[in-house]
Design a protein that fits this description.
about 450 residues, alpha+beta, Rossmann fold, Dna Ligase, domain 1, eight-stranded antiparallel β-sheet, three-stranded antiparallel β-sheet, 21 strands, disordered C terminus
């Protein structure tokens, strides 16, 4: 908003923070996303009404919709992102995998075509070897994905994944590939211009996930050595150049315990977790996207891209962390105070005290980012920031976030995408005091009818 000045909003968000920040705002419809933020015709009308010269799509809704980018181009309006060819090529998991192979990018062994029936799925899974991952070709955000360890689970996974893919993306095509057990999820930020130049802006470690959705991210990764980082970065740039990519984008990889890495997908948009890359490189990615969209060449060379310090992002959600590591909680924020009084703390949010957390949108409250010269410093700041955050009126996931960033396994860097189910096999129960400390606390604080019991 600070860069672009104009915005759109649904009827229920006319008093939202992004509307207040904008010089000009246009209502595009009622709360349901299909009638507002996904209503392409209403958004195009807002573009015409305001005389906008360019549109930044953010990192949701129409941000990876090639038809939207095409519609803007037809009206002479710049889409601040890649062109329609790159969006389409990387948006389809089957096509993107074929392109990655041709660009000599490491890919996960699997079937390169569309799986049409449950019987065919079983046959392919047997050929690949269990376990396998069944996932939607047009998918993202963890939807339309199932792990299968045998024939029965493959049949069931095919049925559920195809149904979920059809309802979520309007496309029920599935692919099957080898499931990499206990991997890390590490992604490379790329930036490319319209003149054939491309850079890799180091990595982000995104292994802490629930339901295949990221919870805590950090940059750089504790796991990568300089040679592996360079190899991943160079392959990410090879892929970007293969589709003539221009803008900021993210190439996601799975990395096994031996540092073998495999292409997962490319997100042709700004990522939620982009602030941690900005912290360690000093680059403003939104500014760079706007410059590229205008036609400017990149200002930097690969040797100019540093890793300065360490940054960590916690996704603060209006969720109940005690139910499946986070089920949405709706309501009004009766009290809200961000920890901005602390040094090297950044809070990207779109809400304020009195805001409503709606059933219609993602329940994210903010992206809480801390930075330090070392990882230990960034983690200590994150702990302080979480402790200082005040959120009342909705249930939130700060108790879980705090437990994660102080857990010995996380602190030591011993993490995989299975971290949460491994550390909390029975679900998250909150901070557990040791028996000795509980006994000592009881002796110090006698219980009464109004006291907290343990």
């Amino acid at each position: 908003i600070l860069n672009c000045k104009k915005t759109i909003a649904a009827q229920t968000e006319i008093f939202a923070v992004h509307v207040k920040m904008a010089d000009e705002a246009v209502c595009v419809g009622p709360a349901p996303t299909a009638k507002s933020y996904l209503n392409m015709e209403a958004i195009m009308e807002a573009v015409r009404l305001t005389g906008a010269q360019a549109v930044h799509p953010g990192y949701g809704f129409l941000s990876e919709n090639k038809e939207f980018a095409k519609r803007l181009a037809e009206e002479g309006v710049t889409f601040i992102g890649p062109d329609t060819h790159a969006i389409q090529a990387m948006g389809d998991k089957i096509e993107s995998k074929l392109i990655a192979k041709a660009a000599k990018v490491n890919t996960i062994p699997g079937f390169d075509g569309v799986v049409k029936t449950a019987d065919e799925a079983v046959k392919i899974a047997q050929q690949i070897g269990y376990p396998v991952m069944i996932k939607a070709s047009a998918g993202g955000g963890g939807k339309g994905m199932r792990i299968a360890w045998n024939d029965e689970e493959t049949r069931e996974g095919f049925r559920f994944s195809s149904q979920e893919a059809a309802s979520s993306f309007g496309d029920d095509r599935l692919l099957i590939e080898k499931y990499i057990d206990n991997p890390r999820h590490i992604e490379i930020q790329v930036l490319a211009d319209k003149h054939g130049d491309a850079l890799w802006l180091n990595e982000r470690e995104c292994s802490i996930q629930r339901r295949n959705q990221k919870v805590v991210e950090e940059a750089p990764s504790t796991f990568l050595d300089p040679d592996t980082r360079r190899a991943m970065g160079e392959q990410a740039v090879q892929l970007a150049k293969a589709v003539k990519y221009s803008s900021a984008g993210t190439v996601e990889f799975l990395v096994d315990s031996k540092k073998n890495f495999y292409f997962l997908e490319m997100n042709t948009r700004l990522q939620v977790e982009h602030p941690i890359t900005e912290c360690i490189t000093g680059l403003d990615l939104v500014e760079q996207m706007i410059r590229v969209a205008k036609g400017y060449r990149l200002q930097h060379r690969q040797e100019d891209i540093p890793i300065n310090g360490w940054a960590i992002e916690s996704r603060v959600y209006a969720e109940d962390p005690y139910k499946s590591f986070g089920l949405p909680s709706i309501g009004r924020l009766s009290q809200y105070q961000e920890p901005l009084n602390l040094n090297n703390v950044r809070v990207d949010s779109g809400i304020e005290e009195g805001s409503d957390i709606s059933i219609y949108y993602d329940p994210m409250i903010s992206k809480l980012v801390t930075y330090g010269s070392t990882r230990a410093e960034a983690l200590a700041r994150m702990e302080d920031a979480l402790d200082s955050y005040v959120i009342r009126g909705v249930t939130h996931n700060i108790p879980l976030l705090r437990e994660i960033i102080t857990h010995p396994r996380f602190v030591s860097g011993d993490i995989t995408t299975n971290f949460l189910p491994e550390v909390y096999p029975d679900g998250f129960k909150g901070h557990q005091l040791e028996a000795q400390r509980c006994s000592r606390w009881r002796k110090m604080v006698p219980l009464s009818s109004g006291s907290l019991s343990l």
